[in-house]
Amino acid sequence: QVHLVESGGGLVQPGGSLRLSCAVSGGTFSADAMGWFRQAPGKDREFVGAISWSGDSAYVIDSVKGRFTLSKDNAKNTVYLQMNNLKPEDTAVYYCNVEGGRNPAFPWGQGTQVIVSS
Prior knowledge:
Elements: E1 3-7, E2 10-12, E3 18-25, E4 33-39, E5 46-52, E6 58-60, E7 68-73, E8 78-83, E9 92-98, E10 112-116
Parallel strand pairs: 2-10
Antiparallel strand pairs: 1-3, 3-8, 4-5, 4-9, 5-6, 7-8, 9-10
């Protein structure tokens, strides 16, 4: 089974920055792209953005455009989410997974908590 381990979350004040990491290991299945998702208290899990494994194409949803950026290191099998100018509305548990999040070969990890509060 593929293992997904998120890290880098924490408590920050509004306007602060965090860089989340997602380490991918194991498995024998391939994926075209990796994505970041988040789930805020009382809300459904929300897709945030995705980046291609083979290329450099990446995109994020409108609500975080200009603040969040995805990147990757293929040699390390790691994807990143750079979050700048954080807002309280960004508070959530952040997860990584294949784009779509419905491949049984990629079970959800535990996520990493991001809290934006003054």
